[in-house]
Write a structure and sequence with these properties.
By secondary structure, this protein is an alpha/beta fold. The protein has one domain: TIM Barrel (Alpha-Beta Barrel), CATH 3.20.20. The strands form three sheets. Strands 1-2-3-4-7-8-9 form a seven-stranded parallel beta sheet. A two-stranded antiparallel ribbon has the order 5-6. Helix 4 runs parallel beside helix 5 and helix 7 packs parallel to helix 8. The structure holds zinc ion (ZN) (2 copies). The site of one zinc ion (ZN) has 4 residues, from loops.
């Protein structure tokens, strides 16, 4: 089993050393993990603190790769927070380092931070959800260097709206367009179990979206906890695997040098 979305203390919002993450992963029987630390160019009110010192990073990564080489395969990943005006800097960074795996995510829209509440402020649920999905559509239509799209229905975490699921049929055109674009361009999505610890009661995306992705021909999918501390590594994976089986998936993927390797779900 794999955990392909882990933040070490190279991410501003995590205190977990790479070593602590590896120990926990081995403890619970994982064979493959990816460190996917944050790079978000021009994050509002954050200066450049979401940037990583990749010289130090690669030294640390090499160290854990050597230390745990018999037990754990460790991918060199990154989670990119994309915005329309930072494509070039992002591409430069992605071309500069030998990443195994790239998660593309949306964290900031119209220069408004989703996480601190700025994006949803003053918007109805419908306005927030639609603007978010349009932004995701623009990302997958205009940016090609990534492996999987991160936490596809992340907007459900924000805004404090009472109804935080997409109702049947709601936003169908946008969701279909996003998923088709991801599939046609040879990319995938992830199932991200952090939805549990953020009170959504399910991973992201929901089973309905997973089914839609599968029906449209989607095959490429990774599983990740988005852990920022050891106790969440591998969290909720049994549930996520059941969801994948239920949606008809028979494989999950890990990545080496940006190439997917499909592993059967038992
Ligand atoms: Zn994220
Ligand atoms: Zn993350």
């Amino acid at each position: 089993m794999h955990d392909y979305h882990i933040h070490s203390n190279f991410s501003t919002d995590s205190q977990m050393s790479m070593e602590a993450a590896c120990e926990k992963a081995i403890d619970i029987g994982l064979t493959d993990i990816a460190f996917t630390d944050h790079v978000d160019f021009d994050y509002p009110n954050f200066d450049d603190s979401f940037m990583i010192d990749y010289h130090e990073y690669r030294i640390a990564l090499q160290k854990v790769r050597e230390k745990y080489q018999d037990k754990l395969t460790i991918a060199f990943g990154v989670e990119i927070g994309l915005q329309p005006h930072v494509h070039q800097e992002t591409l430069n960074l992605l071309n500069e380092h030998p990443f195994d795996f790239i998660i593309l995510s949306t964290h900031v829209i119209d220069h408004l931070d989703m996480h601190v509440g700025d994006f949803c402020a003053g918007k109805t649920r419908e306005q927030s959800y639609e603007r978010y999905l349009k932004e995701v559509y623009d990302s997958v239509s205009s940016f090609d260097k990534y492996s999987v799209y991160g936490h596809l229905d992340l907007i459900r975490r924000y805004g404090g709206y009472t109804d935080n699921f997409f109702r049947p049929g709601e936003f169908d055109d946008l969701l279909n367009s996003i998923l088709k674009k991801i599939i046609e361009s040879g990319h995938g999505i992830e199932i991200n179990t952090s939805g549990f610890r953020y009170g959504l009661g399910t991973p992201m995306p929901t089973l309905d979206i997973l089914k839609k992705y599968k029906e449209l021909g989607g095959e490429l999918i990774t599983i990740g906890s988005d852990a920022h501390s050891p106790e969440y590594i591998g969290h909720g994976f049994d549930y996520a695997l059941d969801m994948l089986r239920c949606a008809g998936f028979r494989y999950i993927a890990n990545f080496k040098q940006l190439n997917p390797i499909y592993v059967p779900i038992d």
